[in-house]
Amino acid sequence: MGLALAEALLERGHPTTVWNRTPAKADGVVAGGARRAASIAEAVSASEISIICLKDYETMYGVLGPAAEALRGRTLINLNSGTPGEAAAAADWAAELGAAYLDGAIMVPPPLVGDPESVFLYSGSEDVFDEHRETLASMGAPRFLGADPGLAVLHNAALLGLMYATVNGFLHATALVGSAGVSAVEFADLAVNWFLPAVVVNPALVEQAADLEASDYPGELGTMEMNRNALEHIARTCVEQGVHADQARHMAAIAEQAIAAGHGGENYLAVYEVFKGDQAMPQRRIASRA
């Protein structure tokens, strides 16, 4: 995701300095015109605005620690994942350092970064948002949600919770009919044309039905480990906000089962392997009733 953000900024003419904990990961964007910083402090010092995209807030503190002094008088745009409480704490932390701060959430996968219709959510200082709106628009369509710095990650958790529940419903239903030997491709066609297809089953899931049959779940754009991290953040956000958290916890537990079964480096559709379970016995039962 960090590479996608840097590439989008470069393509739209923004002088861009990059830094990564694994320097070689930046080779491509450096070849494309970015300047490579030798340290995080050097990267922060290179520009008025720093955009950071990491696993969570704890990781952000660890990475930015050596750049604390460099952040004074500058602006930090944080696109991490976490909870509203963590976002509020990060805003307070930045204020103590003398840095302007805006919290955000990326609502698209890396290939869609830079598309003018790709949704990016922001919350916190509206002045910071307005001042840097043009830069933010280089990465996607920026939407400001309000002065509470936790609103972006709250909406992120809500929307991702909806997405995971929808995907799980489709995968579980596909596994259920698969217990009778129905192919994923055959069922997907019915599922998307059954009722309100754009709401119940996204056609993009149908396009991936053949991958389910082939047990092919490439993780280049996002692994099960990454998705479990997001699901854990959703569950913690529910607890933090006083909302029923059992569904979110259950989805996180299913992702954990997939990881334990060896699918940690594959994409989220590998949950299908968990849902399939041992289908041999149900198929025999159905055959005996025919």
TrEMBL record:
Domain of life according to the entry: Bacteria
Entry GO MF terms: NADP binding; oxidoreductase activity
Keyword Transport part of the UniProt annotation: no
Pfam families assigned: NAD_binding_2 (PF03446), RedAm-like_C (PF21761)
Sequence ranges assigned to domain 6-phosphogluconate dehydrogenase NADP-binding in this UniProt record: 1-141
Oxidoreductase is among the record's keywords: yes
Keyword tags: Oxidoreductase
Ranges where the NADPH-dependent reductive aminase-like C-terminal domain occurs: 148-276
Gene3D superfamilies: N-(1-d-carboxylethyl)-l-norvaline Dehydrogenase, domain 2, NAD(P)-binding Rossmann-like Domain
Family: Belongs to the HIBADH-related family.
Protein name (record): 3-hydroxyisobutyrate dehydrogenase
Organism (species): Saccharopolyspora kobensis
